[in-house]
Amino acid sequence: MGLKGTAAIVGYAEWPHVRRYTDEKRFTIDQWAELTKLALDDAELSVDRVNGIVCSEIREADMFTPATIVEYLGRPVNFAERVDLGGANPVGMIWRAAAAIELGIADVVVCATPGRPIPSNPNRGPVDPRRYFQSSSHKWGSPQAEFEIPFGNLAQNCGYAMIAQRYAAEFGYQPEALAKLVVHQRESAALNPLAAFYQKPVTTDDVLSSRMIADPLRMLEIVMPVAGGGGVVVANKEIADQCPHSPAWITGFGEHLTMKTPTFAQDLCRSPVGPASEKAFEMAGISRTEIDACEIYDCYTITVLLTIEDAGFCNKGDGMQFIQEHDLGFDGDFPVNTHGGQLGMGQAGAAGGMTQVIEGARQIMGRADDRQVRSCQNVYVSGTGGIMSEQAALILQGN
Amino acid sequence: MEFEKPLPLQSPAAIPFWKALQEETVLLQQCDECSHWVFYPRNHCPRNLGNSLTWREVSGEGVLYSYTVARQPTAPHFADEVPQLLAIVELKEGVRMTSTIVGVDPNDLKVGMPLVPYFDHVTDDVTLLRFTVRNSKRS
User: Fold this and answer.
1) Tens digit of pLDDT for each residue in B62-100?
2) Which pTM was predicted?
3) B47 in a domain, yes or no?
4) Distance of residue B112 Cα from the nearest chain A Cα, in angstroms
């Protein structure tokens, strides 16, 4: 059951992640087209080979998103999906592309997540104050509008902080361990020219003395918003074997959703990435010890900690100790977020998780330059949406 | 720019809950078939999807399941509440709800601490269920 592993990532494009974007602003659909072109160029495939796309939301339309993109690209497709899993979108997009390819309904599928600002609207009216409620729905009938927003339980910081606080009460808390995680990732980001924190490592003290945002989460444990974006080309075996880069085969995946608001989680300290990862490993037929690098969705440090535990790399409650005992650098004994993660790259909105997918493929293709993991064949990638409410896992493997 | 506090958009299924809060009582739904306690209010039990739920008065007492101290406002509407003491409260019946803690020093918050309801009559029509500790100046 599951994927046979005959679809692969064959090319990708990744824009530099920058805190201040100064180039010309373009619409999401323009950005989609540019990322598609760049990723296809990377795979040395022409656009007429594309017969599938997987997208997420775009700024120019609330509905009919895939058709709007396909129309712009000028490419009729047999397979078009819009994924709605927040930060888990990129992982969710890749496995859907692989599944469509294995089913034989598409041969080349583009998955893109643009994350640059769009031109400002000259006809914009006054700002709707409800826009501050972000991912909490203020619509009539929404449980969030009725039971969350009035208390100010909004956005992401506080939800993750409450997960961390509960974890601390159940299993104990070592701020130094989470700071060490940040230090490792920022070391890798310092080697990554596409990262917002390129050549900007930090120390444990920097992390522990950074401003408290929502107890116990400090500023350097939280992603910084940036402009960026990425796109990936997934192709069938016949095409993958002819592409210039060594393919990153998509051999396993899992996805699991449990709730929207953490208040309603059955157990705040056991995240959906557990069942998702179990399925991914089972499908790929490999064990945790065979993994050469982990590209773990890292909106916050606590996300990485829970993922390391729930994905089965160590026991529940041992994650802090695990981080203390391992070198998480690209050349360490347990490489995590070898590109710097989103804590090192910055988070370009929903494109954030695509950095993890692309780095996984990059490592398998052997294209990670100064931060290449030695003989990297098996990569675990995770995606996290909402407040650890919807998560997905992916196994990528080399030839 | 003025940011009025967002008030709950009260849904038809939850009207008894909101009305009871105005009278300083807490009502929860319980499934007639499986006895499961339900929150937030709705028309179907999230355990068996049965649609026979009965409102029952409960004490509103519970424990602090988790919390955070938001040092910067979660939206400009809440700037005057900083530090916001956001909480997940687990009632004795086992349901959890989002709320804020009042009348407690942030340093005294502790996961597992017992809490009692604090009925905050924010307008003539809306009472929010916040929580505090017994014998606090707000209880």
Assistant:
1) 999 999 999 999 999 999 999 999 999 999 999 999 999
2) 0.97
3) yes
4) 9
User: Is B51 in the same domain as B103?
Assistant: no
ipTM value greater than 0.95: yes
Beta-carbon separation of A162 and B67 below 8 A = yes
- Please, which residues have CB within 8 angstroms of residue A215's CB and are 6 or more apart in sequence? A161, A165, B68, B69, B71, B106
Q: At what angle do helices A273-284 and A301-310 cross, to 10 degrees?
A: 50
> pLDDT tens, A282-303?
999 999 999 999 999 999 999 9
Kind plus residue range of the DSSP H or E element containing B29: strand B26-31
Task: Kindly list the residues from chain B whose CB atom is less than 8 angstroms away from the CB atom of residue A149.
Answer: 6, 8
Q: How far is A154 from chain B (nearest CA, A)?
A: 6
Tell me how far apart the alpha carbons of residues B50 and B41 are, in angstroms, rounded to a whole number.
14
**Distance between CA A297 and CA A352 in Å, rounded?**
8
Task: Identify from B2, B47, B68 which residue to disrupt to test chain A contact, counting A C-beta atoms within 10 A and taking the largest count.
Answer: B68
Residues A152, B65: C-beta atoms closer than 8 Å = no
Sorted by where each starts, the structural domains of chain A and their CATH numbers stand as 7-118+222-397 (3.40.47.10)
Tokens at A133, concatenated: 């409620």
Q: Nearest chain A Cα to B106, which residue?
A: A215
- The reply to whether residue B68 touches residue A268, judged by beta carbons under 8 angstroms, is no
At residue A87, φ and ψ (nearest 5 deg) are -65, -20
> Chain A within 8 Å of B100 (Cβ-Cβ)?
yes
Q: Is residue B17 located within the same domain as residue B71? A: no
